[in-house]
Amino acid sequence: MNEQIWIGSLAVDTRNDRLGVVMAKEGGVYQLRPPRGGLEWDVPPKHLRLATAADRRAATGQAS
To answer: Measuring CA to CA, which residue among 33, 37, 38 is closest to residue 13?
Structure first.
């Protein structure tokens, strides 16, 4: 991960290509929550990247 990840950013868990909002960083891992709400999950920094415009469109069902 080369990008700077900030609380509130949209990011992707590269282990499963799951999009989430960064809620916190605790104990060396990030906590993400689905954009429309739901349970948070932990993501190690090496498996996290900032979401691209294409990721955002795919999550909302918009055409490319």
So the answer is: 33
Question: What secondary structure does DSSP assign to 7-39, as a single string?
Answer: TT-EEEETTTTEEEEEEEEETTEEEEE-TT---
Could you tell me the two tokens for 39?
Answer: 């349970």
* pLDDT beyond 80 at 1: no
CA gap 16, 6 in Å, rounded:
20
Residues, the chain: 64
The per-residue pLDDT for range 27-37, each reduced to its tens digit, is 999 999 999 99
Domain extents in the chain: 10-60
Looking at this protein, which amino acid is placed at residue 30? Y
Q: What is the CATH number of domain 10-60?
A: 2.30.30
